[in-house]
Specification:
Length: about 575
């Protein structure tokens, strides 16, 4: 019996001998990337003139933004409008909600498109992304910035670092990281006998990208990075970032992303969440937003777990209660400048914004003086004016939430408003940059995410340094960003250990905001998110389902093992 079988194998394997590897190399040429430069917008500069023209154009139009499903433009009977937060009677975009039926249609088309898209060689995808980055950096830079400034109430510099630099960086660096990751191939001990390889595959099904209002770049990253890796996507933008997100969609289409690969589907949040989590084809959720929304989605996935074709991948980057911890040895000017910028740039609506600070009694008089002096110089108003430091908060809901904390501060005996505290929504949703001092380090104002221009300070007795350090990690459920200020090396070493689990992004003698793609990969731990580090090298691989392939070129001969014949 054994002999006969061997004979059979020998004959069969004659044809195996001549076969070469059938697994193609990725063929990605090597290259390096650098971060997109931030333009100056000085008076008379080319970029300033171009931005002014783009702002005028965007202000004088209401852009009609359809739902896009596999290239089909869809409009429903009920139109909605995006307004300028700093002038809420001024509409800049008209858009429509996809209802459950349209979302089901999008899921079908998207899942179908994935099959073809995943076969597109990496090289071709990389070329599309390269073209897109060039379009964003050149021809469409000011369209993106103007849409972000007017729609999300960002000042020139805040738009430039978001909808220009960070967005372009996401597009370029994710391609770079894909290429770097593709370089890794597993060990093949003798290539003439066996070749081992891995290849990236998209996930069969669809990925739901759900993006927040506060960063245009995040919308682009959440939707197009899964697409780069061979997935197809249903992108639900935020209602308050429609215009800038639509610009990204149009640019990616012009660069060559085929119809159906990313489908632009504004929708009511819960309707979207309920529909995608019910679908057996849900391959993943790429979410950035608040904790309650992500928790709801996660629970719904759990409830539907028996229905899916794949275990859906869940990425959720959520909120924060970010801190500045100041040691008695700190450089006062750095503390003041960093805290003002972190707490109040973009109205404190960066997930990384400082909203609680711990300051030693010995430095408090000088730091207080500095903070109040700098705060009083901040101009709040129309973001089209180049002297404006901050615009309005995003919408009425945010305005009410933030002003309720100001009212809480006014009413509480433990809290004192030492700067700002005013708010007015008659024209735009304006809230003054506000500084509160608290006697209670565990008051809700020091614990909950507020997401607005409100900084609370707890002044600690220098002798209570150790106990105060403990408060940083124990006060809140979040661990997104944090900063420590000190000129004492041994204290900094200690802080590095003690604060290890309190922040996914940790800063030493720098403000808690301003992460840069490729430089400070971004994400928080604990309830601040799954910490998949957008802008870092691993992020792209999260959106791939990798296949390992073993090819054997030498015939298999033996069923038994040598020791069995001894
Ligand atoms: N960690 C990070 O990287 C990061 C970055 C930016 C923003 N954020 C966080 O985002 C929040 C602010 O953004 P936001 O106000 O847009 O957050 P949000 O949670 O209100 O909304 C985020 C997105 O979810 C959608 N949504 C709402 N309910 C939904 C549901 N039931 N199912 C599916 N989608 C639903 C919204 O329409 C929006 O598109 C803050 O908490 C901030 O800290 C975190
Ligand atoms: N990249 C941003 C955070 C994004 C969240 O809003 C920063 O670090 O300032």
């Amino acid at each position: 019996m054994m002999l006969n079988l061997r004979k059979f194998l020998v004959i069969k394997n004659l044809s195996v001998r001549g076969i070469q590897s059938v697994v193609p190399d990725s063929n990605l040429k090597d290259f390096t990337v650098v971060n997109e430069p931030i333009l100056s917008y000085k008076k008379g500069s080319k970029e300033r003139k171009e931005l002014e023209a783009a702002l005028n154009e965007a202000k004088s139009n209401i852009v009609d933004v359809p739902i896009m499903i596999a290239g089909e433009e869809i409009r429903t009977n009920e139109a909605r409008f995006q307004v300028m937060p700093h002038d809420h009677q001024h509409q800049i975009a008209r858009f429509y909600y996809a209802d459950e039926k349209l979302l089901q249609k999008a899921i079908g088309k998207c899942t179908e498109a994935q099959q073809k898209w995943d076969k597109t060689p990496l090289k071709e995808r990389v070329e599309i992304w390269d073209r897109a980055a060039d379009l964003m950096a050149g021809k469409y830079r000011q369209r993106l910035n103007a849409a972000t400034m007017l729609g999300q109430s960002k000042t020139t510099i805040q738009a430039e670092i978001d909808s220009a630099a960070e967005l372009i960086d996401f597009v370029r660096f994710n391609v770079f990281f894909l290429k770097e990751n593709a370089k890794f191939q597993p060990i093949s001990e003798d290539i003439k006998v066996t070749k081992n390889s891995v290849r990236f595959r998209g996930i069969d099904g669809f990925v739901a990208a759900v993006s927040p209002f506060n960063f245009t770049a995040i919308g682009g990253n959440l939707s197009y990075t899964p697409a780069l890796m061979g997935n197809s996507v249903l992108w639900k933008p935020s209602d308050t970032a429609i215009l800038s997100n639509w610009a990204i969609y149009e640019i990616m289409r012009e660069a060559g992303v085929p119809e159906g690969v990313v489908n632009f589907v504004p929708a009511d949040g819960p309707v979207f969440g309920d529909t995608i989590t019910k679908s057996p084809y849900l391959a993943g959720i790429n979410f950035t937003g608040s904790v309650p929304t992500f928790n709801r989605l996660w629970k719904q996935v759990g409830e539907n777990i028996n229905n899916y074709k794949n275990y859906p991948k869940l990425i959720g980057e959520c909120g924060g209660k970010n801190y500045h911890f100041v040691h008695p040895s700190a450089d006062i000017e750095s503390v003041v400048t960093g805290t003002i910028r972190s707490s109040f740039e973009y109205c404190g609506q960066k997930c990384s914004a400082c909203s609680r600070a711990y300051i030693p009694e010995s430095l408090w008089p000088k730091i207080k003086e500095g903070l109040l002096c700098e705060r009083s110089k901040l101009k709040v108003g129309d973001v089209s004016e180049f002297s404006t430091f901050m615009g309005a908060v995003i919408d009425e809901k945010a305005f009410k939430r933030i002003s309720s904390y100001i009212e809480h501060a006014k009413a509480s005996p433990n809290l004192e408003i030492i700067g700002g505290g005013g708010y007015d929504c008659s024209k735009g949703y304006f809230i003054e940059p506000t500084i509160v001092q608290t006697k209670d380090p565990l008051d809700k104002i020091m614990v909950e995410e507020i997401f607005g221009p409100l900084l609370t300070i707890y002044v600690y007795a220098d002798k209570d340094l150790d106990a105060t350090m403990k408060l940083v990690g124990s006060s809140t459920q979040f661990a997104l960003t944090g900063a420590v200020f000190s000129t004492n090396e041994s204290f900094l070493k200690r802080a590095l250990e003690e604060f290890k689990m309190t922040a996914g992004n940790f800063y030493i003698n720098d403000k808690s905001t301003g992460s840069v793609v490729g430089q400070q990969p971004f994400g928080g731990s604990r309830m601040s998110g799954t910490n998949d580090k957008a802008g870092g090298p691993q992020y792209v691989t999260r959106w791939s389902t990798v296949q390992s392939i073993k090819e054997t070129f030498v015939p298999l001969r033996d069923i038994d093992y040598p020791y069995m014949r001894e």
